[in-house]
Specification:
The protein has 340 residues and is of the alpha/beta class. The protein has 9 helices and 15 strands. The protein has 2 domains: 185 residues, Medium-chain alcohol dehydrogenases, catalytic domain (Quinone Oxidoreductase, Chain A, domain 1), CATH 3.90.180.10; 123 residues, 3-Layer(aba) Sandwich (Rossmann fold). Helix content is 25%, strand content 25%. The strands form 3 sheets. Strands 3, 4, 5, 6, 7, 14 and 15 form a 7-stranded mixed beta sheet that branches. Helix 3 links the parallel strand 8 and strand 9. Helix 2 packs across helix 3 and helix 2 crosses helix 8.
């Protein structure tokens, strides 16, 4: 009797972007196949429908961020998709649930991703996946800065630097929603001409020197400064704070870390507050779901108005990353694996 040969079953595979070197211009980022991972206890497997490509992500794959992950790795912190399988102990995320994933590490630039259940939150049915992933990081950072670290209250006066960038624009919308008086500093005032939510005042940094302008318009100063830019406007913004004012250091999009004069902090009892959302949620994972739910619920209620993202296929992403980043901070790029 002739025995039939046993044909081994093929392992289901996925596609993922892999960063193999910090030289995006020399094919350091490639698309590869890999086995689809299985979720362990307390984890879920998500089929990715969209993943955000942020300014920080672009820095990371070029080795220009403060933290360099060990090579090789799959970039991407924010993704959305559908739960495929839940690991042992996960009862609140059934297969088929549409979710957002926020990883404290990396891995969302792939057709599938395994994530701890605490990092996965259902998406409201009226919020598209690509819009959710385009909004989470900017609005999450702005919300953490203003509401958790800054303690912004209704009626307070807020000065926002870089108000036409991703985090700055998100902060304008959230602060208006919180009934604060918002002053937006930008080199692109036209950003706010037809926006659904507008600041109370706009300062054009190209033609209006910040300190004389603020001193003339607001001699009593402002209560809070939100600064995701750093650079040459930082000292003028600090001096624009009133007594007991709070200066929120969010980032250094200008590429220059300012040296703030400490005598200006001392003289009027001002406070400088560090804001680093990614580190906070990594150390305090129990708060992550609540933060994501705040952003997603506001999106669902139409409170927030993120710009429509540019969609790219997974296999197009290495070429996109070799190009200079978009000049406008409000341009969002989202990877959609199904476009492949």
């Amino acid at each position: 009797m002739t025995r039939k040969a046993t044909v081994p079953m093929s392992t289901p595979s996925m596609q993922r972007v892999v960063c193999r070197s910090f030289d995006a211009g020399a094919n350091g980022v490639v698309v590869e196949s890999a086995p689809i991972p299985a979720p362990g206890p307390g984890e879920v497997l998500v089929r990715t429908t969209a993943a955000n490509v942020s300014f920080v992500d672009r820095l990371i794959v070029r080795g220009g961020y403060q933290v360099r992950p060990p090579l090789p790795f799959t970039p991407g912190a924010v993704g959305a998709g559908e739960v495929v399988e839940a690991g042992d102990g996960v009862t609140h995320l059934a297969p088929g649930t549409s979710v957002v994933v926020l990883l404290s590490g990396y891995g969302t630039w792939a057709t599938h991703v395994v994530a701890p259940a605490w990092a996965v939150v259902p998406i409201p049915p009226n919020v598209p996946d690509e819009l959710a992933v385009a909004a989470i990081e900017a609005y999450g950072t702005a919300s953490y800065a203003l509401e958790e670290r800054g303690g912004l209250r209704a009626g307070e006066r807020l000065l926002i630097l870089g108000a036409s960038g991703a985090v700055g624009a998100a902060a304008v919308e959230i602060a208006v929603h919180l009934d604060a008086e918002v002053i937006a500093v930008t080199s692109d005032p036209a950003t706010w001409d037809h926006h659904a939510v507008r600041p109370h005042a706009v300062v054009d940094r190209r033609s209006e020197p910040l300190r004389p302008t603020m001193k003339a318009r607001y001699p009593g100063g402002v209560d809070v400064v939100l600064d995701p830019v750093g650079g040459d406007l930082a000292e003028a913004a600090l001096r624009s704070l009133g007594p007991l004012g709070r200066y929120l250091v969010v980032g250094f999009a200008s590429g220059a870390i300012p040296a703030l004069p400490t005598n200006q902090i001392l003289l009027r009892n001002r406070t400088v507050v560090g804001v680093e959302w990614a580190t906070w949620i990594t150390a305090n994972s129990q708060h992550l779901a609540r933060t994501l739910e705040v952003v997603l619920n506001r999106l669902g209620r139409g409170v927030l108005h993120p710009p429509k993202p540019t969609l790219v296929a997974l296999d197009e992403l290495p070429a996109v990353l070799r190009e200079p980043p978009p000049g406008a901070g409000l341009i969002r790029t989202v990877v959609v694996p199904s476009l492949c």
